């Protein structure tokens, strides 16, 4: 083993930490670097020296220099750009001496030391959090100015190894973009690097359970899932893959391990190859804190690499700040297992926050060097670990920790996931359904799975408790059916998700708070659990128990201007308002924007590793729209194929354009089913149904494209009578009151009049709310 032979330790790809000199203004003890029109790096140095090495947050500072002026005022300076002014007196940072102001319609002022007023970012872990927890800072604020203090983070030397900071220096980056949140995040990513782009298969369902599976029992479980038509693309094997109970007692506990448990996995390469044959990728759990002990298969080689006589059985301590250890850690412990077929590693957390070097977090080191090592042969690499602070978006996927089984836990996860976009962190994976404690609640488990399907990464998981289960068949029929349908829909979503995956790598997260879309609307800040899911969808997950009368769960949303169509029910809602959305257990509010196009794999194409040969595209046809489908091939992700889809509302034409770019990564011919969430122009509106949609089919040569033209614009909107009747039929309430309500609903009156009159009927409040929601939706011809 030689240092120079190993690519594990090298500068992060794209790192360029020394700023253009023309962007820099200096004084005796201070330096200001203009990194963007609203981004200022401000440094103070007791010794007059300044830091040009990359930090955990900032890996790129050599950026295009924006136009700015610098006016010396005494020992300080006034720096002015098109967006902001920075006034600094040249002394140690103080509220009176360091002030940043934005200009224009978002004019505001920030002073050093003021109480943070940002919109929050994310957190290191949700371990044992039962409900809400404080969030770490983000870089967005309603008043438009935030400060990211990078003074305590550790550094990377030019060769990629670890560096520490010089005492007596401050290093702060201020973002001053008003409510131009997109610009602020673009600048953040210019400095901190791009988010990870995931392999396509990571966007399917993950199966995970803390349980001592054997190779036989795990494959039998996958057979059962296949028989249930529930697809998975990632096999997560928790810590029992390695020796646990069989660790000799003189070596301590079995949390840390790198050797397969032979009684459970007698032939690991064959087991991993079989998972690959089934279209699955595999990750194994790591708890590295106890180092390498003498019972490990790789111990003799690791001990020799560290200068230890293996005969002494002296343990090799876990020390990621020791360059020799880190190289042995990858070359001798992990790579042999990868050669057997392990695809990536789940870096679980047991090693604490401290190392032998001040300010150097072992979690940061594991995330960073695992990512670099996983990408050593090309590609972007893949890790699965906890968030370690600003800059962690480079090391997806995030593991949010051991979730408590409770409605309070579920209720916080949508907000926690969306707000992470405020610090550029896009890829959270939660313990879907909850990991530990709690009580059995079949409705809670179902709603958690539905949220998981509309979260960045859906990974079903539970503790080593025989009564905490996630297999759909252990639930009653209603929950079992809803879970199965949700998990199948996730794999149908993969073409859309992978397109958003490429978009995320350019800096726009898959899941974003609504105020990213409407930053100047106060209403957008008041619905933390409603979020954008890619470019086309809004999601409002149901995170509280259903009402016992209506048998509907509910979620309050604010809808931006325009109209929004539920992809499952076809109900159309006018935007620019708050609305309470009520759903039975088999569905969740997922709304497609007006003119939105949602590409789905065909119902029988659920392999998350392959680009489909057949699609269904859902269209909200009230306005024209377009969507460019982005595809690549595993192991060749830089060769990208793009297929533009358009809907022209005026011409009533849907078109699939010829695929451009690396067209050979997709099938030469494809079948497309175009499903309009509306009624056909020449058909009768089916008022007795609870949803409206119709489809047309076309077969397309990928190199040529194709189109279909309807006889006229589809009729947008749903006559609510049929949906209301179904709600009344299922309601657990008085029949006389329901009959009276139905009489009102059936009247040939404007819907506003019917809504007023329904208030005079003695329905329970919850039931009245569901009826009013449906009567208040867009009806045919009203769009």
Please describe what this structure looks like.
- This protein is 22% helix and 24% strand.
- It contains 15 helices and 37 strands.
- The protein has 783 residues and is α+β, with helices and mostly antiparallel strands.
- The protein folds into 3 domains: 21-192, no CATH class; 204-505, Glycosidases (TIM Barrel, Alpha-Beta Barrel), CATH 3.20.20; 597-709, Golgi alpha-mannosidase II (Immunoglobulin-like, Sandwich).
- It has a 7-stranded parallel beta sheet. Strands 21-22-23-28-25-26 form a 6-stranded antiparallel beta sheet.
- The relative contact order is 0.08.
- The termini are far apart.
Report the portion of residues in β strands: 15-25%
Spatial ordering of strands, largest sheet = 17-16-15-14-20-19-18
CATH superfamily of the largest domain: Glycosidases
Helix content: 10-25%
Shape: globular
Tell me, rounded to a whole number, the average pLDDT. Answer: 95
How far is it from the N-terminal to the C-terminal residue, by CA? 70 Å
Helical segment count: 15
What is the CATH topology assignment of the largest domain? TIM Barrel
CATH level-1 class of the largest domain: Alpha Beta
- List low-confidence stretches: 3-7, 684-690
Q: Using DSSP, what is the number of strands?
A: 37
Largest sheet: number of strands, sense, barrel closure: 7 strands, parallel
CATH architecture descriptor text of the largest domain: Alpha-Beta Barrel
Describe the secondary structure blueprint for this structure.
Layout (H helix, E strand, L loop, with lengths): L23 E3 L3 E7 L2 E7 L8 E2 L13 E5 L2 E5 L3 E5 L9 E5 L5 E4 L33 E5 L5 E2 L5 E2 L5 E8 L4 H12 L12 E5 L5 H13 L6 E4 L30 H10 L3 E6 L12 H7 L17 H18 L3 E4 L14 H13 L23 E2 L7 H13 L8 E5 L9 H12 L3 E4 L16 H16 L1 H12 L5 E3 H4 L13 E3 L3 E3 L13 E7 L3 E4 L5 E3 L2 E7 L6 E4 L3 E5 L12 E6 L5 E9 L2 E13 L4 E5 L2 E2 L7 E8 L17 E8 L3 E5 L10 H11 L4 H12 L4 H8 L6 H11 L8
Parallel strand pairs: 14-15, 14-20, 15-16, 16-17, 18-19, 19-20, 30-35
Antiparallel strand pairs: 1-2, 2-3, 3-13, 4-11, 5-6, 6-7, 7-8, 8-9, 10-13, 11-12, 21-22, 22-23, 23-28, 24-27, 25-26, 25-28, 29-30, 31-32, 32-33, 32-34, 33-37, 35-36
Helix pairs in contact: 8-9, 12-13, 12-15, 14-15
């Amino acid at each position: 083993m030689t240092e120079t032979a190993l690519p594990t330790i090298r500068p992060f790809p794209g790192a360029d930490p020394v700023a253009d000199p023309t962007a820099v203004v200096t004084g005796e003890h201070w330096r200001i670097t203009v990194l963007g029109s609203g981004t200022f790096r401000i440094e103070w140095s007791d010794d007059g020296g300044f830091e040009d090495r990359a930090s955990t947050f900032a890996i790129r500072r050599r950026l295009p220099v924006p136009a700015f002026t610098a006016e010396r005022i005494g020992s300080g300076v006034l720096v002015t750009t098109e967006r902001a002014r920075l006034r600094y007196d040249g002394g140690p940072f103080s509220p009176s001496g360091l002030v940043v102001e934005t200009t224009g319609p978002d004019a505001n002022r920030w002073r050093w030391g003021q109480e943070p007023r940002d919109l929050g970012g994310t957190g290191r872990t949700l371990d044992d959090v039962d409900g809400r927890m404080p969030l770490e800072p983000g870089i967005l604020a309603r008043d438009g100015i935030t400060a990211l203090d990078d003074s305590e983070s550790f550094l990377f030397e030019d060769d990629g190894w670890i560096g520490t900071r010089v005492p007596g220096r401050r290093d702060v980056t201020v973002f001053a973009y008003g409510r131009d949140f997109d610009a602020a995040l673009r600048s953040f990513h210019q400095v901190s690097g791009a988010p990870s782009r995931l392999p396509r298969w990571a966007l399917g369902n993950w199966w995970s359970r803390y349980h001592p599976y054997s190779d036989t029992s795990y494959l039998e479980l996958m057979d059962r899932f296949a028989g249930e038509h529930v697809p998975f693309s990632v096999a997560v094997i928790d810590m029992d893959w390695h020796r646990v109970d069989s660790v000799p007692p003189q070596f301590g506990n079995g949390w840390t391990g790198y050797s397969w448990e032979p009684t459970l996995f007698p032939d690991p390469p064959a087991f991993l190859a079989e998972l690959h044959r089934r279209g699955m990728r595999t990750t194994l759990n790591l708890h590295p804190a106890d180092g390498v002990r003498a019972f490990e298969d790789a111990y003799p080689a690791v001990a020799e690499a560290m200068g230890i006589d293996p005969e002494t059985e002296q343990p090799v301590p876990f020390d990621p700040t020791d360059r020799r250890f880190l190289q042995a850690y990858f070359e001798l412990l992990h790579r042999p297992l990868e050669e057997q077929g392990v695809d990536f590693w789940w870096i679980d957390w047991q090693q604490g926050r401290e190392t032998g070097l001040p300010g150097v977090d072992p979690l940061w080191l594991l995330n960073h060097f695992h990512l670099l090592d996983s990408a050593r042969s090309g590609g972007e690499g893949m890790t699965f670990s906890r968030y370690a602070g600003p800059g962690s978006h480079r090391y997806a996927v995030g593991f949010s920790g051991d979730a408590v089984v409770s409605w309070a836990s579920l209720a916080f996860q949508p907000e926690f996931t969306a707000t992470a976009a405020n610090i550029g962190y896009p890829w959270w994976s939660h313990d879907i359904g909850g990991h530990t404690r709690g009580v059995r609640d079949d409705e809670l488990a179902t709603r958690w799975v539905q949220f998981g399907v509309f979260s960045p990464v859906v990974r079903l998981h539970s503790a080593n408790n025989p009564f905490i289960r996630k297999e759909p068949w252990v639930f009653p029929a209603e929950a079992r059916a809803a879970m199965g349908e949700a998990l199948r829909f996730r794999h149908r979503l993969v073409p859309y998700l992978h397109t958003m995956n490429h978009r995320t790598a350019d800096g726009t997260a898959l899941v974003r708070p609504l105020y990213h879309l409407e930053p100047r609307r106060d209403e957008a800040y008041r619905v933390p659990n409603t979020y954008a899911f890619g470019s086309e969808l809004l999601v409002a997950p149901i995170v509280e128990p259903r009402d016992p009368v209506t048998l509907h769960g509910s979620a309050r949303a604010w809808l931006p201007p325009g109209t929004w169509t539920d992809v499952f029910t076809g109900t159309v809602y006018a935007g620019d308002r708050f609305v309470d959305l009520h759903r039975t257990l088999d569905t969740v509010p997922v709304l497609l924007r007006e003119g939105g196009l949602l590409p789905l794999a065909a119902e029988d194409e659920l392999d998350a590793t392959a680009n489909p040969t057949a699609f269904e595209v859902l269209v909200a046809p009230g306005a024209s729209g377009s969507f460019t489908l982005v595809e690549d091939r595993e192991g060749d992700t830089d060769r990208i194929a793009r297929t533009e889809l358009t809907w022209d509302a005026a011409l009533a034409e849907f078109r699939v354009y010829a695929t451009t770019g690396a067209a050979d990564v997709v099938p030469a011919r494809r079948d497309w089913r175009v499903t309009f969430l509306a009624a056909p122009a020449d058909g009768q509106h089916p008022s007795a149904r609870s949803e409206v949609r119709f489809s047309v089919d076309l077969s397309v040569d990928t190199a040529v494209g194709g189109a279909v033209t309807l006889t006229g614009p589809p009729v947008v909107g749903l006559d609510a009578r049929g949906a209301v009747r179904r709600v009344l039929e299922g309601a657990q309430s008085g029949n006389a009151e329901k009959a009276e309500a139905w009489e009102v609903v059936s009247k040939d009156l404007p819907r506003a009049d019917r809504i007023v009159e329904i208030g005079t009927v003695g329905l329970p409040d919850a039931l009245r709310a569901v009826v009013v929601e449906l009567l208040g939706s867009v009806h045919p011809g009203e769009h």
